[in-house]
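Human: For the file, kindly provide a plain-text protein record giving the amino acid sequence and the backbone structure tokens, at your earliest convenience.
Assistant:
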Amino acid sequence: MTFFLSSVFAPVIGRGLRRGFGLRVIVNGVVVLLAWSLAFAVFAETIPLRSAELRVEEDSVVFNADYGLSLTPSLEEAVERGVPLYFVFEWKVTYPRWYWFDKTVLTGSTQHRLSYLPLTRQYRLSTGLLSQDVASIEEAERLIGRINSRPLFDRNALEEGQRYTFAVRLRLDTERMPKPFQITALGSRDWNLASSWLTLDFRP
């Protein structure tokens, strides 16, 4: 970080001093950059990944993972007040190119919708066309965060022997929430849940 700040702002500071601007503008720029960096660090990973495995079973590439998903009190309250939460499990497969950006060859995602049923005092978890009622928020968190032998793609879709990179993450899709909640989520850790991108190198 020190090298980055000095390399970026040193020429600007020099010009500013020569032109008589003073240091206030430069200091403000540094403060903004540091604040942005700290905010990124805070929101980078709020869903820890406990374990993960990518393997080939016959002609399918399957994925296992255990995410430590835990809703904040603010999100639990929002669900109980009738605001559904959407979680997205998303992945991509790329291969490196020395002359350009890595090429994305496969992508996929699974969406989970979590809502509350006040009449039965249960939660409903919907994934695609399937839905199930769960008795507690802890059970819903476990079902969303635990991925057991999920087939992702056919190994024949990739070139045999080629080295690929598999990347995956789980996140709360705040864009699916009502607008007032989206605004609240902009600067609050309580309203932002996401794992870091996990990357695994493999050859089919």
Q: What stands out?
A: The CA atoms of residues 42 and 186 lie 13 Å apart. Strands lie at 49-57, 60-67, 85-95, 103-117, 122-127, 130-134, 146-154, 164-172, 198-202. Helices lie at 2-19, 24-43, 73-80, 137-145, 179-185. Residues 1-43 have pLDDT under 50 and may be disordered.
